[in-house]
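To the wet lab folks,

You asked to see what we're planning to order before we commit. Fair enough. Below is the target structure as tokens, and below that is the sequence we designed to fit it. If anything looks off to you, flag it before the synthesis order goes out.
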């Protein structure tokens, strides 16, 4: 998928959305619009804000600074297309409860859209989906569907199937993926050979 020559819409307001914006610009996108469901933060943070409120302030990533048009308090209602090709994204404004405000619907031209609103876990279908109920899954606090395996031997409920990294712990960081990958490799070696010299 390349964004060159395309009108791009990025749904989401986090780091992944910024990565999508920056990559789209580098590939030569004509225009990149970012949709954030949250209200536009103030230029300066409210230092008196106390828990559970967060003292946010308007931040601009280097990718956004390359020229992304940022829309705040906007929900994505529909991806509109013709002959199987995306042509527009239907949006509307939302109130403080993120409920659509009637009569505020509008369309943004789009040839390509990225949904960057959080890691949802293991996608349905695919070879993990084929394992059905045999593979124990769990939903974590972030509503991510993850494969169940412990951090000792990384074995799943399916014989000879090990899991490590994001698929096991949900959306995380490279350092955790490296750590778990190394530990899982050790466990697999031990399983296959009866003992292992690999570090934990
Ligand atoms: C846009 C974005 C930006 C990020 N930025 C950062 C950052 O700045 N710093 C940071 O620490 N983390 C960042 N992360 C998170 C980080 O990328 C992940 O935590 C990390 O890559 C997880 O590693 P993993 O090996 O568990 O999974 P992945 O890196 O997702 O690797 C899984 C691999 O399995 C392959 N695969 C899937 N299905 C199959 C199959 N059936 N057969 C064979 N192969 C298959 C996939 O193609 C993929 O290569 C970012 C994530 C995203 C999406």
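Sequence we intend to order:
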């Amino acid at each position: 998928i390349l964004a060159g020559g395309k009108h791009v819409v990025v749904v989401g307001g986090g780091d992944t959305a910024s990565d999508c914006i920056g990559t789209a610009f580098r590939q030569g996108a004509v225009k990149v619009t970012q949709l954030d469901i949250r209200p536009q933060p103030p230029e300066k943070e409210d230092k008196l804000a106390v828990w559970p409120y967060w003292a946010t302030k308007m931040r601009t990533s280097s990718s956004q600074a390359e020229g992304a048009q940022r829309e705040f308090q906007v929900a994505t209602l529909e991806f509109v297309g013709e002959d199987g090709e995306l042509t527009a994204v239907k949006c509307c404004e939302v109130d403080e409860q993120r409920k659509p405000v009637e009569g505020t619907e509008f369309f943004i031209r789009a040839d390509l859209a990225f949904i960057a609103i959080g890691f949802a876990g293991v996608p349905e279908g695919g070879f993990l989906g084929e394992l059905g109920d045999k593979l124990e899954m769990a939903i974590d606090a972030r509503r991510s569907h993850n494969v169940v395996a412990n951090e000792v031997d990384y074995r799943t409920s399916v014989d000879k199937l090990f899991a490590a990294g994001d698929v096991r712990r949900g959306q995380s960081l490279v350092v955790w993926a490296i750590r778990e990958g190394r530990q899982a490799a050790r466990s697999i070696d031990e399983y296959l050979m009866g003992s292992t010299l690999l570090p934990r």
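Structural context that might help your review: The helical segments are 15-26, 126-130, 166-169, 174-193. The chain is about 20% helix and 25% strand.

Thanks,
Computational group
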